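quick one
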Amino acid sequence: MAQTKRQMLTSVELYQDAKEVMPGGVTANIKHFPPHPIYMNYGEGAYLSDADGNKYVDYLLSYGSMMLGHGHPEIKEAIHSQMEQSGTWLFGTPHELEVTYANKIKEYFPSIDLMRYTNSGTEATLLALRFAEAYTGKHKVAKFEGHYHGGYNEVLLSVNPEISEAGQKNNPNSVPSSKGISAAQTNETIVLPFNDDHAFEILTEHASEIGAVVLEPIQGGFIPAEDDFMTKLRNITEELNIVLIFDEVKTGFRTNLGGTQALYGIKPDLTVLGKVIGGGFPMGVVGGKREILMVSSPVDEETTDVLKPKDVLFHSGTYNGHPMILAAGLRTINILENELDHVLNRTEKLKTELESLFFKKGIAMQAVGNGSMFNVILSEKQIRNYRDYQQSDMQTREKIDYELLNKGIYAKPLNRYSLSTCHKEAELEKTLNAYNEVLAEL
Ligand SMILES: Cc1ncc(COP(=O)(O)O)c(C=O)c1O
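structure w/ pyridoxal-5'-phosphate:
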């Protein structure tokens, strides 16, 4: 089992206590890593400090959601002034900011005519699939091997399958990624190979049953769909009456302002957003073609009659469109309008310099990614999908990650790197120095 060397007695004690009240001591499985997770208790800018007083440059950034770093004063101000202006923090009714923020998102995502707010990325992809099923009347879903869309049965299949169970590379099995998923559900979700034209044959074969294809246009935030593959996917889904859903929870306002759809020049039918759009608070969005989104309208557009629930796609939520969160999210986007380009430039610089450090050490490494996210992959081979990634040298990568933790660089072991507006020259230099030392000791 990998060990951390920094003084972490408080984290160890907290972990022991946590195991008495939560299964495995965590309230999200992804937050665990051996021998124990590190308990953070303060964040400022690009830095996190743990309960034992150790300080880290944070590259996890709450799985990418803290795009402005920690404790940004303008976000605090946005929340306070929204609260002062409203007198409360939740109306339980529609309010103006819902419209203002929706128009801002539409500015950058021209594929979105209408949208709905949710409380997480999970809820948003779930809603998108329901839209697709209600609109097409077809109830199977297709997803790609290695892609993550949240924590529910329809998409918790072949997210991280054992290669021994995963089936053929170009015709993968649907493998549960959680206990508790029925065989029936496993068969309802069709798993496709990513960046592989065989996916189109599978879609054609099951076209009469598949209502939606959902994908991370950049798998895991770092493996991009190839241009030609994306164009073909758009064309075939249109041809087969399958709703194409871009899950841009990781990439929205992180690869660039318009998401991957602007990079590819492709309009999906539905887009899902999360993470950055909530400014570090829980939020998601489903947006897309008017005719699809209107399936959830409680009133008939022409007659203005209120429709019967059974004739409408159900979508509700006590906290949808929470004013504090919309205020934080909208201010985040306003700041990124001026600052995102700098983050993108600094990310490119970090990637190039890391690659050159590894090259000098004679270790094959690629900093794979797009925009302000990338992954450190120890492989000479081009990484085009989940299976290529699985063949990279994860053991050495993990060893490096643990050593980096000891030197104050926090990327959860084996996770991707995300940068924020607060990751500047000084943080890049610290990171490169730490890598230099770790690689020298390898
Ligand atoms: C691509 C993608 N979709 C959906 C989700 C689920 O979002 P949330 O964790 O907000 O429920 C995530 C979370 O990491 C994600 O990366």
